[in-house]
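Example A, followed by Example B.
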Amino acid sequence: MQTWDLVIIGGGPAGEAAAMEAIALGARVALVEQRGRYGGTCRYAGCVPSKTLLHSAEVLHMMQHHAKAIGLPPVNPDWDFRAVLRHKDDVILRAGGEDGYDVPRSFRDAGGQTFTGTAHFHDPHTLNVAGELLTGEQFVIATGSRPRVPSIPGLAEAGYLTWEGIFDLPTVPEALAIIGGGPLGIELSQAFHRFGSRVTVWEAEDMIIPQADSDAVKVLQAALEAEGVEFQLSTQIKQVRRERERRIIIAARDGDRREDTVTHILVAAGQEPNTDTLDLDQARVKCKQDGSIEVDDYLRTSAPHIYACGDVIGGYQLAHVAEYEGKLAVGNALSRTQQRSDQRVVPWVVFTSPPLAHIGMLESEASAQQIPFVVAQLPVSSVERALLVEMQTGCIKALAHRHTGELLGVEIVSYGADDLIHEAALALKLHASVHDIADVIHAFPTFSQGLGLIATELVGKLDSR
């Protein structure tokens, strides 16, 4: 039996960040990874492969469709989906750094040790990993999440894909049904449609990406529909059945029966935490009703020496938030100084084309909290750079506190929104006012000028009170 200052369970973004932070603090660290592949869902079945495929699909779309808009002849190249997948696999390997799929070499060079296998708590201070017992003074649980599969009659028998298999298809689906209108489902709807699939998104709610601003979502959905992606909103799938190589989806909307025949089904209906194999009751760690681990503001669980972070605690299920939480959990576990988790300013992006980027408060949230505010919205076409590159689809929406002028939230649908959002994130972090943003000189011609324009419009609304 070996004893460690800190035992970390899970080698995804949260676990890796936690491990490197613990090594930097001089701790004796054990890192347990079930599959022995470090980087987690984000690297192998999420962010990295999806954004790589999205970029390949965008380049293909630019050649086939956008070229004509900018005075160039459209090109329909002879392309091979298998080559696109090989590129995706190469990017995944390179994203792992010098060790590919392995843990960072610097972790082992500094004395950290890795263990492969499913972890079970034997008691509050002992972990069983493939028959080997590890004793720890402190623990960090960062076991991530897996695809949530809805209970739809016939779905399992008909066969479906999740993010764990969609990136390894040998050919482009002829007809793809996507169950779930969240960020991943929407991103892949555009990617596979651009690769040639007929794509339909099935969503039980009345809008896609429900965590986003409804005005921005309408603009994005219209852009996707203009390309040919189909949407079935406010629709409940009642049954799925298989007929040879086809899947029949039977659904209902407002009492009307709807039916579609597809070759493939992608389930993109959210995530559920990986807690069921940990034997958390042996460690006296409490979970919420949905299975996620209950933590306080310092990421401490109901067992004072055990912390948890990343997807396994729910909340924002994003790689950059998981990394932040991993470092914070270790700092709190190993230091006398305790720091609260601060997630007031968390940017997130839907990497469609154009992307949708968000930071801060939605208009609906400000209204619900009875915060006095002013709001402004402008089309991306009012930004001159959009005209120059013929990318005028999109909008910018922002709100500011009516009395102080402090920026409260920003939603951008625009080419480059994934990068533009960080100026707004910094402004929120510093409690800057829209007067501050309006006074910033934005280079011409850039999409960043849109933030200056929206800030100026908000300033005008504040001054006209």
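Example B, a separate protein, is given below in the same form.
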Amino acid sequence: RAWSRDGSRDHCARLIVRWQGPPDADPSAPPAPPATTQPAEPAAAQPAPPAPDEPASAWVNAMLDNLLATGNRIADLPLFMIFGGVACFGAIALGLIALLCRGGRRPRLRRLLRVLVALLAVLAVAVAVDHKLVGIQRQLGDIRDRMSRDAMSRLASPGVGQGASRQAWLFDLPAARADIERQFGSAQVLPTACDDATDVVQIRLADPLVKCWLAVIDLAHPGLEICLGTNVDRKSLTSRFARDNGCSVAINGEAGRSPDANSGFGEWIGNLIDRGKPILLQDSDKRPFLAFSRENRATYSPAAVVDREVTPEKFNCIWGRIDAIVGGQVITADSRNRQPRTTMGIDREGRRLYLLVADGRQPGHSIGLTRAEVGRLMAAFGAHDGMLCDEGGSSCIYLAALGGIANTPSDNHGQERPTYTHFGVRLAPPPGQ
């Protein structure tokens, strides 16, 4: 397969070609006849339970979120595109004026021409300014990306990250890299140990162009505490929740029916339990949830299971929207719709927690993942069960080690969207500190 990345004045176009064949094959040898060649199936393409049909409300909610993002993208278009349209309409209007101003009305036409020339001059100046601003925006994006890489590099430096003394990752790094490259092709997997209980991985895919952040958390760490945002009467920012609770990692929760401040949950509601205290017990056969015991052992309840009981296994509990992985099987029903994503998953033993956030709706930065791709990425790092949470413009991940929201949300130049609930973890300081 081959793909190209469009160039610009600053960067030459690049054509990337990847040859793939049997592991021991010679790339210089002529290819075998098509009749005897069968493409290898990726390891993750195993039989998986089909996902239930999505309700119409889910489709409508995604469509509204896409329309909002499209409106933001249109508002962010370079001025020369908008002014080009204005100039076209101006030319048409000028032709009509010329037809109407025949026979003795030439002075009026000349005045109109002078006005139009003046307007075009103003547009030319505006286009020049806009071109400069677009260049500055690109530079800011490059700087932001470089700062993110530098921050990850600093954390990975010896003696910098709190987890630098840890000798092993919380996941199988070589296996994860191999699995991701087998399924997605060219990829960068950049891990670092943020503290004794948390590894953070930055994942960059080339085709599709996607940037993700993954936090792998050791739930068995004795100093780990789970924090939930439970003020369901009003929305707040994930970064504010994280700072108020001293979280090292936090992700967005549920935003409800729409991004509006008072949208309400509607059907997007489920179980929420905070330290044994039930906040909401409204699980249905549409909503999965993750539960954590007092010792932080995690269990997963798929969407089809209805469970509203408060038990010791549900000392902390938060709901999601749709199954992503159930019993080690990736749900593969959705294979086309690319969106920003927020996902929570656990390993088979319930001792590892995976928080994945993927950016989307931002050509040139990240276009997003399908639900099936999210499940495959999570499974590559060891997730056995997992759920897709509220996504779109809500998707964000807070990393205290990087100073705040680490990803780039799709709303309003990367601004995070307030949500009703939040999920985070914090690491209690050792005794005596």
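On Example B: The helical segments are 56-75, 79-100, 106-156, 173-184, 238-245, 371-380.
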